[in-house]
Amino acid sequence: MEKTHGCIHEGEHHKGTQDKCVSLVPIFNHLEEGQMDEIMNTARSIIFQKGEMIYQAGEQSDALYLVNKGKIRIYRLSESGKEQLVRILRPGDFTGELALFNEGVHESYAEAMLETLVCVIKRTDLQKLLLKYPTISLKILSEFSNRLDQSEKQTTRFATEKVETRIAMFLAECIDAEKDSHEIVLPMSKKDLASYLGTTPETVSRKLADLEQDGLIKQKLHKKIEILDLDGLLLV
């Protein structure tokens, strides 16, 4: 693996950190405690400061990265240098999974959005665990399926839907179905949202203002948005 710039944790705190990493991640947290301990012992924890790269396109891909604390933005660059946000990772999420199945290089960039604690498991260690505990493989395949579905939806929207529709559908998908409130908090900055939806920050701001003027949403402080008319929003 290419050298990273994060700080490696050692000692007792290191062990506790690994344990939290493993228990947070859905591909592992179905295992018994002893099995999670075994995985924990193969991992190392690294702190990345805001703006530091976890990995870059073209670097060797040979490890799985588990997010314990913080946020990571995964993005690609087009041939013209334009940035395309792929996803944002939060505690319990992971990246680098393609390294589990073949040797290659990263095709995207992973950048810490704030101080971020990551647990790293090398490919060789994880492959042994996959052979020993096949249910992990099934969980990873399930996550692959989810990401592929999300990627296909995003590609279709770029090709067929106007910008305001993309924004409206994104807002609708942010609603927590288990809560009565339709107030959401944007999970990313307007700049990142624009990159994710294939537009510009200025267009995002303008379209949100239009949706507010139409009585569909209400913008509040700290990236909060209240959905006033969900049915109307879905018809945009």
TrEMBL record:
Gene Ontology annotations for the cellular component aspect, listed alphabetically: cytosol
Keywords of the record: Activator, DNA-binding, Transcription, Transcription regulation
Limits of the Cyclic nucleotide-binding domain: 27-147
Ranges where the HTH crp-type domain occurs: 161-231
InterPro entries recorded: cNMP-bd_dom, cNMP-bd_dom_sf, Env_Response_Regulators, HTH_CRP, RmlC-like_jellyroll, WH-like_DNA-bd_sf, WH_DNA-bd_sf
Record flagged with keyword DNA-binding: yes
CDD domains (alphabetical): CAP_ED, HTH_CRP
PROSITE patterns the UniProt entry points to: CNMP_BINDING_3 (PS50042), HTH_CRP_2 (PS51063)
Pfam families according to UniProt: cNMP_binding, HTH_Crp_2
Domain of life, per lineage: Bacteria
One Gene Ontology molecular-function label: DNA-binding transcription factor activity
PANTHER family: CRP FAMILY TRANSCRIPTIONAL REGULATORY PROTEIN, LISTERIOLYSIN REGULATORY PROTEIN
UniProt protein name: CRP/FNR family transcriptional regulator
